[in-house]
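Researcher: Next sequence.
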Amino acid sequence: MVEHHSAAQTVRYSHPVVLLGALYASFGSLVQNPPLMLLQLLPVTIAVQIAHVATCLGSSSSNNGKVSKEGGKKKPGRPAATKGKAELGANVLSALLSLVLAAVMGTPVMFTVMVLLGAPITTHLAHTALCAAHLSILAGMPLIYSYDVQGAKWRDIFSLKMPVDEEYGGALGACLGAWLGAVPIPLDWDREWQKWPVTIIAGMYAGYAVGRLGGLALAGRVARFN
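Model: Next structure:
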C-alpha cells in the first residue's frame, strides 16, 4: 500500500498549510464581520479535518484500541483495492461520527470555558459560540476519532500525561494558541483586528498547526506540565 502511504503523508504535511491558508485568505473578512466569516470558514475546516483524520489517522487508530474483529487478518480472496476503499469508507464514517460528537459535546464545554475565562456573556454570543465550535473541531475531533470515549485515555489527556502525538500536540497547540491570542484584545491600540474573537481564532489556528507538527517531531514523549 505504498500509494496509500504516500497520499497519507501528503495530506499529513499539507493539512496545516491548507488550514492556515484558508484563515489567511479570509482574515480581512474575519476582521470586518467575525460571525459571518467564522460560519463560512467552518465547513472548510470540517472538510479538511475529515480528510486528515480519515486518511492519516486510520492506521494509527488501531494502535489505540480500535482493532478489527478479524484480529487484523486478511480475508482470503479480497482484492487490495476493494479492501482499501472499504477501509477508507469506514474511516470517513468514523470521522463523521467524531465530528458530531465534537460539535455537540465539545462546543458547549468550550463555550463555557471561554466565558469563565472572560469572554462576553451578555453580548457577542454568536462570536463566542462559533469560536468554541472551531476549537472543538480542531482540538477535539482528532482526539475523539483516535480514542473514542476511553476513560483512561481522556484522564491522561486532561491531566497532561498523554504521550505526545500529532492529535494531542494539535489539541494542546490550539488551546494554548487561543489563550495567547487573547493577549492583544485588552490593549489600547485601537486596531480593528483586536476585536473579539479575531486574535483568538488566529492564535488557535497557528497553535494547532505548530502543535501538530511538534507532535509529529516529538511523537512518543510524555507531555508533563506538573
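Model: The chain has eight helices and no strands. Residues 59-78 have pLDDT under 50 and may be disordered.
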